[in-house]
Amino acid sequence: EEVLKRALKAAPRDVSVLHNYGCLLWEGRREFRRAEELLERALRIDPSHLATNAALQDLRADIARASSHADAQAAALLAELENGLSPKPASGKSRSRRKKKNGVQEAP
């Protein structure tokens, strides 16, 4: 990543650098928005760059899938709350809500 940062600083209008850095952020770091910005910049410079057009289309499909997944998780959580259930922690383990006093958990 550092090499691509330096390359982008040296040549901010290099479509290949923008494309490669955008793909690294998307596929390697899952930084969808930053990746999208870099790929869009590349296409403003060269709208006919086939690899970047394809990458941007695939990235946007990933963004839509991630958004749908997040929406489904939020809907499930809301349904649990509306049904009076306490939401499950992300780890799947329940946590005790009793307070600790001097490092010792109080009895129920």
Question: How does the SSE layout of this entry go?
Answer:
Layout: H1 2-10, H2 15-28, H3 32-45, H4 50-82, E1 100-101, E2 104-105
Helix pairs in contact: 1-2, 2-3, 3-4
Task: Describe the protein.
The chain has 108 residues and is mainly α. Helix content is 65%, strand content 4%. It contains four helices and two strands. A two-stranded antiparallel ribbon has the order 1-2. Helix 2 (15-28) packs antiparallel against helix 3 and helix 3 (32-45) packs antiparallel against helix 4. The mean pLDDT is 83.
Annotation keywords:
108 residues; 4 helices; mainly alpha; 65% helix; 2 strands; two-stranded antiparallel sheet
Count of DSSP H/I helices: 4
Q: Helical proportion?
A: 55-70%
Q: Please identify the oligomeric state.
A: single chain
For the terminal residues, how far apart are their CA atoms?
Answer: 52 Å
In terms of DSSP E residues, the strand content is: under 5%
Q: For the report, how would you describe the main beta sheet?
A: 2 strands, antiparallel
Radius of gyration: 22 Å
Characterize the overall form: elongated
Helix and strand run: HHHHEE
List low-pLDDT spans: none
- Looking across the biggest beta sheet, what order are the strands in? 1-2
In terms of structural class, how would the helical and strand content be classed?
mainly alpha
- Write down the overall mean pLDDT: 83
Number of strands: 2
